C-alpha cells in the first residue's frame, strides 16, 4: 500500500503516508518504500519566474482565451507541479527528479 501511494503520488512524504495509515511508524514506511526501490530524493530546483516569463504566459493566455476547457487541460505550467520546498519525495531510480 505504501509503495502504491508513493507511485501514484510521487510528491507525497512518508509522514503523510504514516498519517493516513495511523498504526505504523515513519521508519517502517521508509523501509517499505526502499524495498520497492522508491528512494527519498529532493526535487530538482527550478528558478522563480522572471517578469518576462509572467508577461509571456499572460500573452499566451490572452491569445488563447477562446480555447475550450478540454484544450486548457493539456497545458501544464511549469510552476504548478513543483512540490513544497524542503520536502523529500519518492521516485524510481529511472525518473528525473524535476518539476517539468
Summarize the structure.
It comes from Electrophorus electricus. Residues 4-66 form the Transposase Tc1-like domain. With 100 residues, this protein is mostly helical.
Structural class: mainly alpha
Q: State the oligomer.
A: single chain
The largest sheet, given as strand count, sense and whether it forms a barrel, is: 2 strands, antiparallel
Mean pLDDT: 72
Please give the domain count.
1
- β-strand percent reads 5-15%
Describe this structure in words.
The protein is mainly α and 100 residues long. The chain has one domain (2-92). It has helices spanning 2-8, 14-21, 26-35, 51-63, 69-72, and strands at 38-41, 89-92. Strands 1-2 form a two-stranded antiparallel ribbon. Helix 2 crosses helix 3 (26-35). It is elongated. The two termini are 27 Å apart. The relative contact order is 0.21. The model is unreliable at 95-100 (pLDDT under 50).
Keywords:
single chain, 5 helices, mainly alpha, two-stranded antiparallel sheet, 100 residues
Amino acid at each position: 500500500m505504501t509503495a502504491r501511494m508513493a507511485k501514484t503520488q510521487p510528491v507525497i512524504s512518508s509522514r503523510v503516508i504514516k498519517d493516513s495509515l495511523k498504526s505504523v511508524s515513519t521508519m517502517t514506511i521508509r523501509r517499505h518504500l526502499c524495498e520497492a526501490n522508491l528512494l527519498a530524493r529532493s526535487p530538482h530546483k527550478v528558478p522563480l519566474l522572471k517578469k518576462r516569463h509572467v508577461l509571456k504566459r499572460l500573452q499566451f493566455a490572452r491569445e488563447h482565451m477562446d480555447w475550450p476547457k478540454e484544450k486548457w487541460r493539456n497545458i501544464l505550467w511549469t510552476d504548478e507541479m513543483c512540490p513544497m520546498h524542503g520536502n523529500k519525495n519518492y521516485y524510481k531510480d529511472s525518473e528525473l527528479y524535476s518539476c517539468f
